[in-house]
Amino acid sequence: MTVRRDGTYVWATWLSRLMAGDSSCEWGAWFKSHFQGYAKAPSDFDLAAWTIKHTRLLRELRIERQAAGDQILIEEQTQFYYERPSTGLVVSGKPDLLTISGDTVWVYDAKTGQPRTGDTVQVMIYMYCTPRTNPAFQTKTLKGVVVYENNRVEIPPSAINAEFERNFNYFLDILDSDIEPTRAWGRQSLTVPRWGGLLLASVAPPLSIVSMQRCGAKSVHHRTSQLPLF
């Protein structure tokens, strides 16, 4: 059952895709930030194959860094909850791996698909939020690495500068707003979702099948009373 969240909650990947332009639909990220309990796409073969590849890539990375003598932080040890001082919005994320070598903390995220700008932005968000939520990292230098199967993209500490912070807050303003963004309509057919008996998008024709851009949702048909798959 879909219900409104008690407060605005943003998962880092929703924000990174929006910031990088990998997702042009602001409404999808806004909706997930303000609501929970919506229907999600079921697991399929593609997800299983991705999970296997990702698990292997991450395991090999962990073994590499352990052999180099780094201190390793994984899973729940890496998760953060950054609360925006001005509004209380929470940004959460979970880097695949944090390693500590001397005064440097390396932030790693493994990717098995084609490189995207959003991959780099995602790690930059991790680099911004991690020291602001973990006092142990506040005096250390943070460097980021996006790990692909055949190459790596390193992100220097200088990337987390005043300009990045301005852009970070600019896009958070969109998700933090109580005003629902206009939904982008395109070729894919989805029924207009309802919440509490009311259409979530006032621009949508009532009780009809309409064309809607992906908006981060799976391309499927469903009844009006159901909610979009994300």
Q: How would you sum up this structure in a few lines?
A:
With 230 residues, the protein is an alpha+beta fold. The protein has helices at 12-20, 26-34, 45-67, 117-133, 162-176, and strands spanning 3-4, 9-11, 35-36, 71-74, 80-83, 90-93, 97-101, 104-110, 141-147, 152-155, 189-191, 194-195, 198-199, 209-211.
Would you spell out the secondary-structure blueprint of this structure?
Blueprint: E1 3-4, E2 9-11, H1 12-20, H2 26-34, E3 35-36, H3 45-67, E4 71-74, E5 80-83, E6 90-93, E7 97-101, E8 104-110, H4 117-133, E9 141-147, E10 152-155, H5 162-176, E11 189-191, E12 194-195, E13 198-199, E14 209-211
Parallel strand pairs: 2-6, 8-9
Antiparallel strand pairs: 1-3, 4-7, 5-6, 7-8, 9-10, 11-14, 12-13
The helix-and-strand class reads: alpha+beta
Number of continuous helical runs:
5
Mind summarizing the main beta sheet? 5 strands, mixed
CATH architecture of one domain: 3-Layer(aba) Sandwich
Beta percentage is 15-25%
